[in-house]
Design brief:
280 residues, alpha/beta, Spore Coat Polysaccharide Biosynthesis Protein SpsA, Chain A, globular
């Protein structure tokens, strides 16, 4: 099927959640999408479930078999980008449930940005999400954005994106210029997750826009790679323990000379960002 949007899904032992995810994607009001999937070495029935949907929707769903084994979620998603040929891409987590207007709302916003700028500028949009329990029914937080106490100030300086993972991968949509940018930056730093890595570069070289709508039900459970953290003294103590790792990553990042940034400014934003959450 002709597609404007490639949805990229990396799976790993997700048998419990995949049916709900697929049904929420299939029910999208926007119909011009393809789903490209890479399994990252599952040992449960994930592959059988994926093949069931691939056989049912062969014109929409494609499973990548690259024999690269377990890369980890971030590198698996970055690998998937190489298989996309559509005008826009979205990321998808295996345990999410999408609002049926998620693609429609996202593509309308990114096309609005392209009208303002142009298609040659890297553009990224992200939405809010609703945090639910592991079963997907009980709402734990109406707004992930509000629970993190983020403000619009984070969009005024790309240093914020280096200091903190601001945007969640499963809420993102990028244009082709963004894809080309990310593929050109072929040196990946393990400290950063893929969504933070991507938002850093697009905020520096292009434009980032936020839609204040909850278009994903985001499960909170022990298997979340990142999850929704509650900010308290215990959380702050854990973050302080990681400061040496962050400092080392920033030095390594700066030596690559990919973007201009101030390490001191990033560390200041990191500290003030977490203190703000602790105090509120």
């Amino acid at each position: 099927m002709r597609s404007e949007v490639d949805i990229l899904l990396s799976t790993y032992n997700g048998e419990k959640y995949l049916d709900e995810l697929f049904e929420s994607i299939i029910k999208q009001t926007y119909k011009y999408w393809n789903l490209i999937i890479r399994d990252d070495g599952s040992s449960d029935s994930t592959l059988e479930i994926l093949k069931k949907y691939e056989n049912k929707y062969p014109d929409r769903i494609r499973i990548i078999e690259d024999n690269k084994g377990n890369l980890g979620s971030s590198k698996s998603f970055l690998e998937l980008i190489r298989y996309s040929h559509s005008k826009y891409i979205m990321f998808c987590d295996q345990d999410d449930i999408w609002s049926n207007k998620k693609i429609e709302v996202s593509i309308n916003e990114i096309k609005r940005l392209e009208d303002i700028h142009n298609t040659k500028i890297p553009l990224l949009i992200a939405t809010d999400l609703q945090i639910v329990d592991e079963d997907g029914y009980k709402v734990l937080e109406e707004s992930f954005w509000e629970s993190r106490k983020d403000g619009e100030i984070v969009f005024t300086d790309y240093h914020y994106f280096i200091a903190q993972s601001v945007l969640t991968g499963c809420t993102m949509m990028m244009n082709k210029a963004s894809v080309n940018l990310i593929l050109s930056v072929n040196s990946y730093i393990d400290y950063f997750q893929h969504d933070q890595w991507i938002s850093i570069f697009i905020s520096y070289y292009g434009e980032v826009s936020f839609i204040n709508k909850q278009l994903v039900n985001y499960r909170q459970h022990r298997n979340n790679v990142i999850g929704s953290y509650r900010f308290n003294k215990s959380y702050l103590f854990r973050r302080v323990k990681h400061i040496s790792n962050l400092f080392s990553a920033l030095i390594k990042f700066k030596k690559r000379d990919l973007i201009e940034f101030s390490i001191l400014k990033v560390l200041f934003y990191k500290f003030s960002y977490n203190m703000k959450k602790l105090i509120k």
